[in-house]
Amino acid sequence: MFWYLIAIIASGLFLKILLKTSVLQIVKKWWRFLEDGCYVYQFYRVPQFNHNMQENQLYRKVSTYLNSLPCVEDSDFTNLISGDKSNEISLVLDANQMVVDKFLGARVFWINKKDEFTGLKSLVMKIRKKDKRRILQPYLQYIHSVFDEIEQRKKEVRLFVNVDNEPQRNGRWRSVPFAHPATFDTVVMDTDLKNKVKSDLESFQKSKQYYHRLGRVWKRSYLLYGPSGTGKSTFIAGIANLLNYDVYDVDLSKVTDDSDLKTLLLQTTNKSLIVIEDLDRYLGTKSTAPSLSGILNFMDGIFSCCGEERIMIYTINNKDQIDPTVLRPGRIDVHIHFPLCNFNSFKTLANSHLGLKDHKLFPQVEEIFQTGAALSPAEIGEIMISNRSSPTRALKTVISALQINTESRAATRHARRLSESGSVRAAEETGESGIFCKENLREFKKLYGLLRVRSCRKDSSYEFDTSDKDNSKA
């Protein structure tokens, strides 16, 4: 009896030790190791890029699927990554770590590999050979369906920017969440034109079979041209949010040559906007790394067919200075002009920025616009934001700015006529016109300086800085 009690107590202590310590986990681990040695396994590698350095979509799907599994927590080493929301934390499998999944009664091992020399990643799947014919295809289809569900829940638009080409970098694109609040409703544009563009975009989304029947790549290209501050960048953000497409912002200054530009295009995904801003600046510079032919091939060359449901967007300030071969049909499908602010655009800004649909000063503003005064929507929006606590003061300030602009334009035209006529004597006799032009410019700058002081005094919660300026700009 005594020894029986001793045996029970010893067994209890042993079980307690197993449960309270890691001994049980170690025993399980070694048992699985011995068990695995009795089977023959098949290995499948899923590389991040294919042999053409184009992104392997299956890698992204498998990676998303694995990081969603609860068993990632059981890995020996897991990364904790903050999500887009403040209280969201994601678990991401670290390099050279393993996670074990189960499907249809079979165990599937995944190992996250990273090459020490190239920095390229891959996922290696290990399954028993006796299970591969039974589960391989259904398992991969299951991963596809789970990935689609996750993407549908997330619906997160991302902004990609290209980085310098370095051997240790894993791919050429880096991304951040695209949190731009612009929508098509907030874009300052002629209503009829806005509706036509929106209809064109929605028609493009539904035209896969039509494009294939024509033997054309399922893509569309837009040229946005107009002065700075007229809404081109805001328009791009509105398209991204309307279509729920990722945005790839191509910085040509970080592109080494034409081949590098092709590599960037290959590593973009379907359902995306590919944007090159200020294209005229690069076309007009002989020292630009990608050549003109390289940029033209990027726009409509054979490499542009390596992907579908893409929208290419290019922005320039003045298309009259661009070689017509760049703008021919096939390279550019739609041309959209973004002019300086007119009275209709002003009313849209007054409604969105100040909540005004009408005001007693509107006729005076319209009259000044009819004289040829012109400011960009960003400049007028800036004035309205800094005076948002007093709509009347905002309108009066807009009127003053337009008047100064009108006088400056008139003085500039007068000085140009004098210069063209070559009448030096007349220029000396009316030399104050040049001073008048400069004084108006100084007065215009003082006006903006006064706005900053007033806004700081009257609205302490407002800080007039570049971030606010960017928000009012395109």
From TrEMBL:
Keywords: Hydrolase, Magnesium. This is AAA+ ATPase domain-containing protein. Its cofactor is Mg(2+). The keyword Membrane does not apply. Belongs to the AAA ATPase family. BCS1 subfamily. GO terms for biological process: response to stress. Gene3D superfamilies: P-loop containing nucleotide triphosphate hydrolases. It comes from Solanum lycopersicum. One of its GO terms (molecular function) is ATP binding.
